[in-house]
Design a protein that fits this description.
Elements: H1 9-19, H2 25-29, H3 33-43, H4 80-85, E1 94-99, H5 104-107, H6 112-115, H7 118-128, H8 140-163, E2 168-173, H9 179-182, H10 192-195, H11 215-231, E3 247-249, E4 284-291, H12 297-311, E5 317-324, E6 331-338, H13 341-348, H14 352-355, H15 357-361, E7 369-373
Parallel strand pairs: 1-2, 2-3
Antiparallel strand pairs: 4-6, 4-7, 5-6
């Protein structure tokens, strides 16, 4: 988020006044570094930075930070994206991505997500990005969080990948932490304990990883990052600018996750069941609930039906049923059944552009909620292979 030369004048004046010096480079150099850094922390706050908006009304720091790189000096002589497009990093392999709910880190623990009204959410967004409107679906706070996640994290990451001329790989971290009463989600920094294998020190009531971190996901991510560091290839196809991401990192929520929704309850029949019991010791099932962007439920269902066509050809897929919700037009359920966990993992961890899941992710208001189940018996189950 670099700023043009001269745009930092208001903030420089505020910092100089805090230090009691003139707003010049020479005066700042005369102050001990520790004093300058302490003063920066005191003034880099909403309401103290001055008006940093550019002529078009946008704030390069989106109201989150005032001290940003400046274009046109000896440190950053050219626009970074222009330099990348010109091949400045052509010889470098790049792995870049973002988290699905980045802004939750700032808005959920503070209570701002719940406190924002419609007018406040619109006003806060207009103050830093006047040409951007709140997306549909959800509370004002949730919509504001999605808009800011796109502005601050997801959008810049995609532009970086688009501009890079060397080998490039994208990802989306969508695993939801159940911290903060199950609401933290795939927030900023929640991927770090998974990448560095530090779940033991990041779980619990005050940990980013929440109460039910996935050790299996951490092992997969560490192996992926190590493979990329060693070979320049994380194990999936290179970045496609037409897609939202190339690979997704996620793991199903546990059945006790506060975010998990109850599975649909089928009709009951009185009396003992006459359906033969079958051995289901290795089979795995899953109910997946997805919420589309406002008014996009039909499109989401269509995208999932295309995914279902792909899944039908995958080894071990016994069922992949897409279900509409009559009284919630933007909610779609998927009922999955697999012959074993390995088959499920192999099918769902493929390139999401190949499977069609990339189109699904682009239509969602938030990562899906999952409930893992073990199929026991019922009409249709006894006749399935496995």
């Amino acid at each position: 988020m670099p700023v043009r030369a001269g745009a930092g004048g208001p903030l420089a004046a505020v910092l100089a006044a805090e230090l009691g010096v003139a707003p010049t480079a020479e005066a700042f150099r005369s102050v001990p570094v520790d004093d300058v850094m302490a003063a920066q922390a005191r003034v880099d706050l909403p309401g103290r930075r001055g008006d940093l908006r550019e002529p078009g009304g946008g704030d390069p720091g989106f109201g989150l930070a005032g001290f940003l790189p400046v274009l046109g000096d000896d440190v950053l002589p050219a626009d970074p994206l222009a330099a990348l497009r010109a091949g400045a990093s052509a010889g470098v392999d790049l792995l870049a991505g973002s988290n699905a709910e980045e802004m939750n880190l700032y808005l959920v623990p503070t209570g701002v997500l719940d406190a924002l009204t419609e007018d406040q959410a619109r006003g806060a967004l207009a103050a830093v990005a006047p040409r951007v409107t709140l997306p549909g679906g959800g509370t004002p706070g949730e919509r504001y969080a999605r808009a800011m996640t796109e502005l601050v994290f997801a959008g810049p990451t995609r532009r970086l990948l688009d501009a890079h001329t060397g080998r490039r790989f994208g990802y989306l971290f969508a695993h939801r932490s159940d911290a903060c009463d199950g609401r933290l989600g795939a927030a900023h920094a929640t991927e770090l304990p998974y990448v560095f294998g530090t779940l033991d020190s990041a779980y619990g009531p005050s940990g980013l990883a929440g109460h039910h971190p996935s050790a299996e996901l951490s092992e997969r991510m560490r192996a992926t990052w190590l493979r990329f560091a060693a070979t320049g290839d994380p194990g999936w196809s290179t970045w496609d600018p037409a897609a939202r991401c190339t690979a997704a990192s996620t793991a199903p929520a546990t059945p006790t996750s506060p975010r998990a929704e109850p599975a649909p309850t089928p009709g009951r029949r009185e009396g003992p069941s006459t359906v033969a019991a079958v051995d289901t010791s290795e089979r795995v099932g899953r109910y997946v609930r997805m919420v589309a962007l406002e008014g996009q439920g039909t499109e989401l269902a269509g995208a999932l039906l295309r995914v279902a066509d792909d899944m039908a050809a995958q080894p071990g897929c016994l069922a992949y049923v897409v279900n509409a919700t009559p009284d919630e037009p933007d909610v779609v359920w998927v009922t999955e059944m697999w012959s074993d966990a390995a088959s499920s993992e192999a099918a769902l961890s493929r390139d999401i552009g190949e499977s069609g899941l990339g189109d699904v992710l682009a239509l969602l208001t938030a990562p899906p909620d999952y409930i893992e189940v073990t199929p026991l018996g019922g009409p249709g189950l006894a006749g399935l292979p496995g």
